[in-house]
Amino acid sequence: MITQFDNIWGHLKGRKGYKNANAAICKLLRETRQHSEVQKWVEHYGKIEVTEKIEVQEIDINLFFDFRNRILGLGGYTLTKLQMNSIESRQQWFKALSINLIYGFRGQEFKAIANLDKPVTVGKRVIPALYDPSNKDNILVLNDCFEVIDDSGNIHKITIKTKGRLARPMVHPDYPNLIEMLDIKNSDISLPTLNPKSTSKPQTIKQAYIQKLGQKLRRWVTQCGLGFSQTHALRHLANLHGTLSGLTDDQRALTLGHSKAMNERYNKHKTIDASLDLLTRDINGVEQLRNDNERLKAENARLKELLAFSQRENMNLKEIIQNLQGSDKVTRIK
């Protein structure tokens, strides 16, 4: 087991992920009462320290837009001839990134989408395909796993972290047409496909898509001088957009596939602009309700005044009618 652990997790030694994985296996051994194995494990690894801390990147929607425009040659930016030769690949990988932004997926969870181009039945409900133009809810169904086919045709099933789930879009309220803006429902742009070497290590095949995404991002950042290189930054940004749009903790946690407590940790990773947006935005419509209330009060006062005027005019009209009726009793001189 020690050899297997080192083969799978050894590349993360010194990082928090390595420490957490080690602790999880040790806990499993204790729960299954394999006391001798626990002793061997502890003696071999001892106390594990985190020596490499990765600085978490913070991005906002405007940086994402600018980065995308530069990479795809949009918004007035132009690409070199060499870059244009790979435009289809650029579009595919940026579509994957855009889906991760909208739904808060982990790096390669986009490969587990079950209803991309066909409807899927979940329980008694039929969830339409994302590419279906009549689909306005744009709910996505994630499978428990996805397949990676290596260059020899072997199929590898890769499980996602929290197994299958349903996910809803988390769209910044200032950009209600964000899904259309980012070509999420454009079936002409496919999602990327990789065929790793069959001789690759299992961990390399398992992490093929997340590794390739990281490589793409780092190369693009070098090319245009800005952007982001951590795919998890999109997950944090999606959580913020969900908050800004008024989604509850439960809704965001279900979509992201983690606990509500984790949402609070995600809230720490915001730019200054994003923090100000969150502080000043009328998330639950309270300010709008207040404004509507003041408008209705003013309208009510105007209607009361109009009603009082109508009542006065009605009294005057009654008096005039009475006077006219009284004049009929006056003796007419022939």
From TrEMBL:
Coiled coil segments of this chain: 279-327
Family annotation (InterPro entries): DNA_brk_join_enz
GO MF term list: DNA binding
Keyword set, alphabetical order: Coiled coil
Taxonomy, superkingdom: Bacteria
Protein name: Uncharacterized protein
